[in-house]
Design a protein that fits this description.
It is a single chain. This protein has 249 residues and is an alpha/beta fold. It is globular and about 50 Å long. It has one domain: Spore Coat Polysaccharide Biosynthesis Protein SpsA, Chain A, CATH 3.90.550. α5 packs parallel to α7.
Amino acid sequence: MNIPKCSIITVVYNGESVLPLTLQSIICQTFKSYEYIVIDGASVDGTIDFIRNNQMHIGKWISEKDQGLYDAMNKGLALAQGEYVWFLNAGDRIFDEQTLERTFAESPPDADIIYGDTMIADDKGNDIGPRRLKPPQNLSWKSLRDGMVVCHQSVIVKRSLAETYDIRYKVAGDYEWLIRVLKKAKTAYYTGFYVCRFLEGGINKKRIIKALAERFGVMVRHFGLLPTLLRHFVIGWRFITYVVKNRRF
């Protein structure tokens, strides 16, 4: 049986308080066919010291200034040597210690993309609740007409399909990247279980207006103006309904 190798990539900047959560979730995995790559953006807190003190668990790492989040992620891709790549940024965690083993044991060997459910968590490691958008059973690039229907940190992609991120985007580059990857993919497998605990309050939530504007531009680019306008009525109604019901977004 051919066991694939997974390159897990973490981008971090001044993440001394949350990077340990990510690292611990990785080193406790029962599945050991992975490499861990950390891309630090020249942090000025204790992040670099933490990385140095844990080099035995980190296959490759660099610390240098970058041109933003997606430039840093491209650096991680350039170092990745696994058959699959998985981005878990500082504070994000693999769901539990058997997640990787179960994921690759149950996924078809020819899966181009593997994706699963997402639990939202705080910076103390406590679960808040499931992500608002649950991924579809059959994910395709057209699924993303409804927005980011699957969490980027809950998607594992074949390295051969993983193009570089467009660094012109500041907050919606992962959305645009996933559309391009899905256009190339022949098979996308849904695990049906949680694969990631995503740290609440990421860059998109802090800069939500910028994120919405960029996402709209991405949708127009890939889906056209009129379809994008029409879909936004549906997206807006779903969002309002969710916020009213759950009192969070």
